[in-house]
Amino acid sequence: MQYILAKPRQINRYNHANRFRVCVNGYELDMSKAIEKVYKFELKIYGIKSDAKEKELHRGPKNDVAIALRHRVLWSIYQQLLKNYEDIFGNDLKKYFYDCGINFYSVNRLFDRSEGEKEFKISVELLPPETRDFLSKRITGLVVRLLPCEEINLHQTTAVSADLYARERSLQQFLEIATSQMMLHEQSHLIFRNKAYDCPSDHDIGVSGGKVLTAGMEKNVRFVGNSWEQAVPVVQIDARKAAFFKKQPLVELVGTLCNRAHPKMLIEDAKLRARVARQLKDLVVRTTHLETQRLFCIFGMTAATADRLVIPVNNQDTTVASYMLYKYQRRLRYPGLPCIIERHVGGKDKFPRNSFHPMEFLEVVGGQRVDTKKQTPELVDDLIQNCRLLPMNLKNENERRRCRAQITDENPYLRSLGVSIIHVISTPRAGNAIVQFPPAIVYKNSKVEPSPSGDLDWRLSVPRGMQNKIFFKPATAPRRWVVFMFHNASDQQSADRFIAAFVNRSRDHGIQMPNPSRSEEYDRTDMDFLIEKIEFMRRNGVEYILFITRDRYDPVHDAMKLTEIKCGVVTQHICSSTLFKAISNRGAEMTLDNLVMKMNLKLGGITHALTSSSAFLSKNRLTNNVMDKEWLRHSRMFFGLDMSHAAPQSLYERQAQVPPSEPTIVAMTFSCGEPFAMQGEYWMQEPRLHVVKFLKEHVERAVRSFRNTSKAKCLPEHVVVFRSGVSEGEYAKVGVPKIITAILEISCYVAYEQSINKILEN
């Protein structure tokens, strides 16, 4: 068997539709005059406590505020290190590179690995006040340990080796750090891995829910070229905006989240309180009433108000409001608001303890991104509206981002390396582009060819009086199906009109859809109720449920999808705005087509297939259809692999050493029988595990399915694997050897021998 990881060389050269020049969002790094090598070290900074114990300062909480603070503190200590030991580092500080973690690079050879680790001491008194405040009085001294690691040649790289297992990213990693040095040096950006955003300012765009949009970019170093040998490093810049929580009093944010409802609604309305609590969870806030203010992460929100929440103080019970008056001589302006819970783990027993803070004595710290779980539909709409850019504007914005990050010839760090930016005068790198011939779209009763200009019409709708396009393989219609409507999502007349239009449009495309057996309205959405209802439907032959909600992101969606798995009944969700659009005078047909296409796939149908266009065959003087006979032939199997990890744990969970509870999800899809017939599987494994488990067993089942459904009843001749969800450094771990092993083991038990001559990865 031949095992190929890189892209195979093209055997047949075909004529293309067109060629032209394009501008890419990258700037080439000119390495022709670069120094020969840099020297990599491991640099660790330790704080010495009063009891002589050491604390690694590069470790700490994972929230955005803690990361930004840690970057500033570590950079300050690092700069002091270089100044204190001028006899070792010299006076040109731009010859050194640091990522505010443990990676340190030097243009000069400071000392050899044979000399071992070297230790440097720094006095806390020499540091700026902000850094000393961060370290607190418990840190009485600092120690920096430096250990040589490797030499990195700036003119040779295996990052683009044809052999995946021989690739290593040392040079690529160094160039990514080197091009970020000025941002760290000037403290001009909030840096989160390869993303950098402007620090909070009055120029931020206000959006819904007490959030702001902040401009920034995603920056990567890629090796780009027409061949492995010609690949050159390019700084890829992608301008973007992200939603951040605005710096503001916490009471103001809570008022915004309540849509300016009366504060007592937080106590009376449990759903509103839960929704606000989800927004506040893990948010970093700063106290405003202490002599020395401090930061903490919000753990939760109480159900009781500050004037009713009782806490023990000196063996006596008192309310939080009374305690604030007694301790700080501060009378609460909003005693009827809930309190914020701070949870911390301390003492030898590691037992969790709660502290309660009145909302009005807290303010939201700026510079915190809004994670996906906290993005409301209104915020998503604001993001779409404010983040879209026309191509020319995107080019200009990329240029502004590059200049703001000082990725220019004037950058002193790049100058010390002898590295410069090619096309530096407002011109990113250009390249040759090829317009490939688009394929033709195949339906059961027709074929859609691209226009002479290459445009392809994917719409299912046809002019009035023409024959409708029948799906390539219409799904078998469900014997019985029902409609669920939750919380009066629509009036009955509109719902009936929609159902009739949905059924008729399904029949137009070849699905012999019956009318629904029943349409029911529910106000209850608890899991027990839904499982009971859907189990009843399943026992009575229902195979498909269309459910309608008022909101696009209604919580009932997740509950229905769980019942789909438990009960084995296919479900499809639409919101009321989609329903009304499907029966309106504008865009109704396209909306219905999208819904019917989705249903067709859910029920096992194939919407369309692809084939070579007549223009491509004519220009290349081909008589055989190369797409059907070669590229998408029935002996070729396609795999898709993806991994999804849970969000980071909260500070309390990490402090309490609570093991992650949300598993890592692995998804796999594969072709079976024919290239456009797909099946899928997913499974769970230990949280944050990057190596795919159980892959061999799932691949065996997939390959057997391919063999059983193929016309020739044989194993695949070629296997093409598409991967996502892992970094390049993890690619080798995501399964190709396991796929090979699984196929080989299956081939040992069949009565014939099938040659698997290529496995390609993308």
TrEMBL record:
<dbReference type="InterPro" id="IPR012337">
    <property type="entry name" value="RNaseH-like_sf"/>
</dbReference>
<dbReference type="InterPro" id="IPR003165">
    <property type="entry name" value="Piwi"/>
</dbReference>
<dbReference type="GO" id="GO:0003723">
    <property type="term" value="F:RNA binding"/>
</dbReference>
<dbReference type="InterPro" id="IPR036397">
    <property type="entry name" value="RNaseH_sf"/>
</dbReference>
<feature type="domain" description="PAZ">
    <location>
        <begin position="249"/>
        <end position="366"/>
    </location>
</feature>
<protein>
    <recommendedName>
        <fullName>PAZ domain-containing protein</fullName>
    </recommendedName>
</protein>
<dbReference type="Pfam" id="PF02170">
    <property type="entry name" value="PAZ"/>
</dbReference>
<dbReference type="Pfam" id="PF02171">
    <property type="entry name" value="Piwi"/>
</dbReference>
<dbReference type="InterPro" id="IPR036085">
    <property type="entry name" value="PAZ_dom_sf"/>
</dbReference>
<dbReference type="InterPro" id="IPR003100">
    <property type="entry name" value="PAZ_dom"/>
</dbReference>
